[in-house]
Amino acid sequence: IGALSLPDMDSELYKSDNLHPRENANIISILTFWYAWPVFLKNRKTELEVSDLHKTLSSHNSKRLGDQIEELWRLETAKALKWNRKPSLARVLLKMFGVQITGNLIVTMLAELGAVLSQPILLGELLGYYSSQRSKSYLYAIGLILCTAFSCLTTTPTTLRYMEIGMKVRVACTSLIYRKAIRLSKTGLGKTTVGQMINLASNDVARFDVFCQFATYLLTTPLQVIIGSYLMYKEVGISAICGVAVIIFYIPIQLFSSKIVAK
Question: How far apart are CA 35 and CA 100, in angstroms?
Answer without folding.
Answer: 21
